[in-house]
Amino acid sequence: MEYRSCFKRLSVLEFFRANINGGLILKNSNLLVGLDIGTTSIKAVVADSGKVIGAVATPNTGMRHGQVIDIDQTAIAVSRALKSVAEKTNAKIYSVVAGIPVGMLQLETATGFFNVGEQGREVSDYDVKKVIQSAIHSVAKDNREAITFLPSSFLIDGKTKVDDPRKMIARSLGVSGILLTAPTGPLHNIKKVIERAGYYNNFFVPTPLAISSVALNESERTFGSIIVDLGGGVSTATVIKGSQIKYANIDLEGGSDITSDISTVLSISKRDAEQIKLDYGYADSSFASKNGKFAINSIGTNRQRMIDEVYLSEIINARLEQILTRLGKGLAKHHYLRQPGGIVITGGTSLLEGIDSLTANGLNVKARNYQPDQIGMRNPIYTVAYGIVNYSYEMSEIDYLVNGVIYGFGENVDEEPKSESKSSKIFKSTASTSESEDKEAYNKNKMSNKSTASISKKDSDEDKPNILKSFFKKFFD
């Protein structure tokens, strides 16, 4: 079954027409902003009812290998990007939805239980939020914060599994799923960057989920594919199967390392190295021509010298092969390298011609490139930001209830509605320890040179605009 396909959805436009303002949306409009805070650049995408109307990328010097090292510099880059895209779209931006990279995520299996009422009654949003809160609290850690909870199923009276228990009669309600958390320190830095830039972050979206929502078609999500995201400072390989994220391998090298290699070997500035990489470089040196030559000004000399495309591409190829080999070894070790959908490549470094053939030949799998096809955004650097927007528009009501618990919008989950049974209470819940070795491996390796991740998700949805109304009202009324 396709991700979220068993649930109805209200579009953001429908919510807007129901007099819902603020929140995800820009004030007095039906727009949504996705923010990708990358190592080498900040990307912001603005969409109206799912259709992109503006996209901007600005340089960023405040991060290294996916980590914030200078809050002020990163905040300046974020502010510049958002002001630029606001001017481009003639909109006033107050809040964003930001992505969280897979390298920061940790996986915990969580279960929760809530006593709805001894006599049994109709399950409400409040009950769902209380059982989700119970699950989140069951595995909470002092040094980590919840990003999202991905319910696998709800359990009615300990025996009937359902995707959405609301309006069903129950005495007790259980839930099991996956809690995604991020380390408090790095997460604080990202929050502070957005705050210092002058904006509010509504909630975070795990970037693998964002990318998969746009880079893979239904068959690729269902039968299994690998997303290779080649960024400026970090490269990742994420496995999607059954419309769920199963595994991710992270390598702390990317396009900026290739630029550094070119700069060092040719004795030129990094600015010049980046430009000739884009102008003359190939990922696969077999695509280059020895007759294709260009001039460079090496540091310490007063004259130009000629370099051919093959030599440049061999420099590029050497680093790319190292990155792809390490990613491939991690995938092979966990038996995820062979997927029916093959590999889908995106990210800024995938602009290098021949990256698909290099990947296919090096890992002996089929591979293709992905980039958004909307006008003004036909560049793979925008994949994450575009995915964040798309993912947010497609969020289910259960997703909004989850985010209400985690980020504190909507009705206060700790205040029981007057109409609810006074006997309702939270029972102690426990976390399952039967997860796969992949998930254990992920949690043991946090943002290191060899880091492995495994995540799973099954979401659901059904129309009910009151949830979003309270969500939006929290921020802008």
UniProtKB/TrEMBL annotation:
PANTHER family: CELL DIVISION PROTEIN FTSA, CELL DIVISION PROTEIN FTSA-RELATED. It is a peripheral membrane protein. Residues 445-455 have a biased composition (Polar residues). Cell division protein that is involved in the assembly of the Z ring. May serve as a membrane anchor for the Z ring. InterPro entries: ATPase_NBD, Cell_div_FtsA, FtsA/MreB, SHS2_FtsA. It comes from Lactobacillus ultunensis DSM 16047. It is found in: Cell membrane. Its main location: membrane. GO terms for biological process: FtsZ-dependent cytokinesis. It comes from the Bacteria. Self-interacts. Interacts with FtsZ. Belongs to the FtsA/MreB family. Residues 32-215 form the SHS2 domain. Keywords: Cell cycle, Cell division, Cell membrane, Membrane. GO terms for cellular component: cell division site; cytoplasmic side of plasma membrane. The keyword Cell cycle applies. This is Cell division protein FtsA.
